[in-house]
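User: Can you recover a sequence for this backbone? Please restate the input before giving your answer.

Assistant: Of course. Working from this structure:
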């Protein structure tokens, strides 16, 4: 039987409960009480997330409108595809939160964090809605962007990849068997490593490419805050995986490693197809081959974080992604860190997670 996770008492002391009195994280049920606290790290992540509150109204997109008129036709195509992907990407994440993760992660501390994450996903959806309304004033273009999952092949393929790995678990009411729990782990890993940890990180690279050229500061400012949120979401999900690995190590066998590796390879190809759509024959400083190296580098990072072997061996080709922390970014955009509604302490190392 694996070692049990320490629990925090009301006085802040830690003790290890009897094995018979404590369930594993993925055991069926719906634990309700926060005391004794079984997973205090999840509660700490919830509290940290509260400090990062921001609103869409704080993002100034006025200068972006003038910048859009300066873009080449290829760059305008890229922006149109980006906002079309953003319009639906976070909705897929939010649905999986409600329909799968909240149902099966049996920890009230974790559910506190998931509740907060759902709020943040709603803010992201509002931000992308505002982007669409600002960037695509033509009603027909805007309607086509909202319908991107149906009518833009490169975005449809990414959505189908997501549904392939996450939809099946929605039908499960309880994780009764080892097979059920493995299916849930694949859902969670797809959610964290592929959707939030690869698809969105790929999209963010295009945004920061524009930023490095002094363009679309409003988009980049909002993206910086979304980037910070998504990194926290991904790290929370990885901690859930770590906890399950500690409690049920038998689930993490060679078969699971091969499934996850195949999943990341498939995700890289789906995102690369999206990159071909965005970049066409290539733009100055941004092309499909550079994006391939970047995506492979990110995929290797995700595999290593999950305790698996890297498979690509690529390095990050984008110097503009080597950003150190939120304060440097806010200074770059001539915005004060107080633009957050709640004070932010500490830093985010963007060089650690591209």
């Amino acid at each position: 039987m694996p070692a049990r996770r320490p629990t925090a008492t009301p006085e802040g002391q830690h003790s290890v409960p009897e094995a018979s009195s404590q369930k594993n994280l993925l055991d069926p049920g719906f634990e309700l009480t926060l005391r004794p606290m079984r997973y205090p790290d999840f509660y700490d992540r919830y509290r940290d997330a509260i400090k990062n509150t921001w609103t869409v109204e704080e993002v100034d997109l006025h200068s972006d409108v003038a910048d859009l008129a300066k873009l080449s036709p290829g760059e305008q195509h890229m922006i149109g595809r980006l906002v079309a992907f953003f319009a639906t990407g976070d909705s897929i994440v939010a649905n999986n939160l409600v329909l799968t993760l909240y149902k099966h992660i049996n920890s009230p501390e974790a559910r506190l964090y998931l509740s907060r994450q759902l709020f943040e996903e709603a803010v992201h959806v509002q931000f992308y809605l505002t982007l669409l309304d600002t960037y695509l004033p033509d009603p027909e273009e805007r309607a086509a962007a909202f319908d991107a999952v149906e009518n833009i092949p490169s975005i449809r393929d990414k959505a189908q990849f997501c549904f392939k790995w996450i939809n099946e678990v929605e039908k499960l009411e309880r994780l009764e068997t080892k097979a059920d729990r493995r299916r849930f782990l694949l859902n969670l890993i797809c959610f964290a490593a592929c959707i939030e940890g690869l698809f969105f990180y790929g999209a963010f690279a295009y945004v920061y490419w524009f930023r490095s050229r002094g363009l679309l500061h409003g988009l980049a400012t909002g993206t910086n805050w979304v980037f910070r949120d998504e990194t926290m979401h991904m790290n929370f999900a990885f901690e859930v995986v770590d906890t399950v690995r500690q409690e049920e190590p038998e689930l993490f066998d060679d078969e699971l490693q091969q499934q996850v590796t195949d999943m990341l390879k498939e995700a890289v190809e789906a995102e690369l197809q999206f990159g071909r759509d965005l970049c066409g024959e290539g733009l100055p400083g941004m092309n499909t081959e550079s994006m391939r190296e970047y995506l492979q580098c990110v995929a290797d990072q995700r595999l290593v974080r999950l305790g698996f072997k890297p498979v690509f061996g690529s390095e990050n080709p984008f110097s503009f992604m080597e950003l150190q922390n939120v304060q440097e970014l806010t200074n770059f955009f001539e915005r004060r860190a107080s633009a957050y509604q709640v004070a932010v302490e500490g830093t985010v190392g963007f060089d650690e997670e591209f």
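That completes the design. Strands lie at 7-8, 14-15.
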